[in-house]
Amino acid sequence: MTAAPPIPDPSLELRAVAHSYARTPALRGVSLTLHPGEVVAVTGPSGCGKSTLLHAAAGLLTPQAGSVTLLGRDLARLDETERAVLRRREVGIVLQYGQLVPDLPLRDNVALPLLLDGGDLAAARTAAHDALARVGLADAAGAVPQEVSGGQAQRAAVARALLTSPRVLLADEPVASLDATGGRQVLDLLLDVARRDGGAVLLVTHDNTAAALADREVRLRDGAVEHEAVLR
Amino acid sequence: MTELHLALLLRGPAHGYEVKQAYDRWFPDAKPLAFGQVYATLGRLVRDGLAEVVETRSEGGPERTVYAVTDEGRERLRAWLAEPAPPAVAGTEDVVRKTVVALRTSAPGRAARAVALDQRTAHLRRMRELQARDPAADDVATRLAHRYAVLHLDADLRWLDEAVEALDSPTPEEPR
After folding, report:
1. Chain B residue nearest residue A218, CA to CA
2. Is 60 exceeded by the pLDDT of residue B171?
3. Which fold has domain B2-82?
């Protein structure tokens, strides 16, 4: 008899996470597990707590109750600097509008995670250039964000998120500002983190065509999980 | 279906199997055409003078009847293309019927919500299957047929999202 392969440790685990803004609850005891190689779509109507969940998963927000374990680390036990280092080295984050630094050329925007980590400028720029080439933006490396289209800026943000080959990718409405073709290109790049590299992808989206690409859907309603379904 | 078969024969004389293959290529996301339906339709086309039998081929296997479109068939196809298709009548799809019936017959909220959410999952799974094929290799007509399937599923999904949200708001009783 062959032993079943061991179940890998979750890449991300939220347990009974609750958080309120002033007196308005945004999350009411949400639990969610994300495994290596898995893509989970978090869906639900506006204001259901999707973005708060993603911010809690990234350690950008400390929930008032519950725990978040990211790559085996309990985020509540890390200080702000340790969380920032964990994010920079192991986690890719893509937000709706790319969040690029306006004055920096795309090349340096993409190189930022390596530069902030004390990396050599020339090496960081070379890596950034390669990452931009992978998303089809080699020719735009010297342009600043306002000189490129929304789709190109978003692809640059993806290049930055993928620069360090993250084990966890967190994306919040990554294609909301893009047309169908541009959106699909960006989604394919993000999904490669799981499909090709075995990382875990958490995709917050209200776009059903994007959600349908996930392995599993977790639907929130009023800050709680209302429905969960395997899609593959 | 009559006109589609005429269109498929317009490419040149073909036997039933070739007609089926061409249809399945033209509409890769549709249900594959059943052989029985192809032969029944071709038989009707011949009966009505829209197509004719031009030869029977054997090619080492079973005998196959080869059909070609007639002038009358071409005229019928031209007339069909010139007439816009009537927009679909809303409310006849099962997805709408089931959700409305669940809403009208179950205790407020919960059961109807479950129907809508389970339907959403079924639609998302189909959407996932549709998106698994890489449309980059398709010609423009195939890509458009595929896009139609994706957009229609997306429209259903948006409607289901609205249905789920609407179930949160109390509505006046249905008049009897």
Report:
1. B121
2. no
3. Arc Repressor Mutant, subunit A (1.10.10)
